[in-house]
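User:
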Amino acid sequence: MHSCQNCHTEFQITPENLEYYQKISVPYPTFCPDCRAIRRMQWRNERSLYKRKCDATGQNIISCFSPDKKLTVYEQKHWWSDKWNPLDFGQDYNFNRPFFEQWSDLFYRTPQLSVSNSHADNSDFCNVNSHSKDCYLISASFENERVMYSNRTVSNQDCLDSYILSQSQYCYEDTACQKCYQLHFSQDCTNCRESYFLYNCHNCQNCVGCTNLRNKQYHIFNQPYQKEEYEQELLKLNLSQRSGLDHIRNKFEQLKLKALRKYANLINCENCAGDNMNNCQNCRNCFDLADDVQNCHYTVWGGYNLQYAFDTGPGVGSNSSYIYEAYDSGINSNNLNFTGVVYDSSNIWYSLFCFNSKNLFGCVGLRHKEYCILNKQYSEQEYKQLVPKIIEHMNSHPYTDKRGLIYKYGEFYPAEISPYGYNETVAQEYYPTTKEKALANGYKWLDPPARQFQPTILHQNIPDNIKDVDESILNEVIECAHQGNCNEQCNVAFKILPAELVFYLKQNLPLPHLCPNCRHYQKVKQRNPLKLWNRNCQCAGSASDNNTYQNVATHEHHGTNHYPNQFETTHSPDRKEVIYCEDCCQKEIF
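Assistant: Predicted structure:
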């Protein structure tokens, strides 16, 4: 066992891990897996956008860097143009200073890309986004049209406030759903239509408040109705009113707690431990991976023919292999180590925002380059002679942060040199914390700017029924019900946009009472943490599991003594849900 130098918890390095580190010639980590992930995630800002000026053109732009950040930022077209040369910012390696000090100087001096928003048609307020049309405030998304306030969405049209949604239309407030139409306030559903408040339902239509249904229609709280009865009951639910919606939501949440849950969402997976994986093999402690992923450990959010990725994500993969301690990297790449936003490249170490390159060490913003160190060009021979000397120097003269943590070769960039506050990044979503705890851990924190507006409508005065709303609402500043008293980057107040109002009217949905940020965090909370616990199938009522079981079945496949199947799950033992093994789920649900 090893002790994490950051949180001091013990963690294990398996023989398989050690073999991987030896193969890519890096020392074993000194941070535990969670602390490694937190450190890495503090470099990825998806949703925090600001107005500032382009340092090249002087024009007002949208940027993922707040205006108080003391770095150079270029708007997209200028950054990608040939009007500047990243090699002009290169520097000689100084053996009298730690590597990370020198790299930090280079990073803050080299122009940064304002946002990553390619092929955007009338979709300026988006980041980590590609191929969008008429979209607003979407991030980490691809191929969407008329989608607003959403994150990690792919190939959707006319959807709002969604998190992890794909191939869907006219959906609202959904989490981890796909191929749905007019589905609202639902989670983990596939091929569902014209329904509200569903959990883990597949191929269902005209249902409200249901869990674990398959191929059903006209159900309310898992009870069947005739079509005419269903339509009458649906009117009684008053789903066009906020009060009616909240009543159904509360009842649904209680039903959801009692719903049987499979220990993990693993589809066509072999020798895998984690959650939300599809077509994976030999992956351990991995989450949200899909489509031919093999031999990965501690990887989050990636896939598409990905192999041998350790400590990576969010965002890694697509025909890539041997990626270590990286985020948002891959796409036809090989041997990327300690990188962020590096595509179509190979043999890259300690580099950010580099494309179509190979054999780089400690570079920022390079394109179509080779044999560069700290953005300075070298010959192949010079490069191969200098890199081992730098690695030796990183070990003999390491960087020490303000808390006394030591960063030698093999550690990711220190969090204290990240340009973002902890609460601006995905770290706050996966590992939420408070300002006090973040600062105590040596992390940055961005306080919201002073409020320059006053709400014109308090949250308790928002019209209860969408039928009582007209276009005058577009001129109002609406108070968020959280009033800033939360840890969810609350905007305090928000406005309704014209396209948004059209959606609510067409879908007969009441106006929201929370700002977009707070709405996003409610959906994030529906997802389980990136952590595994050893548990037993609860259908056998094992006394070794800490839960108290009521009304759970016992199945013969557990044996004559009903000894339960064991597994690793993201459901902690202190949670109230009933967790089943795959065999029991097959019997009870499928």
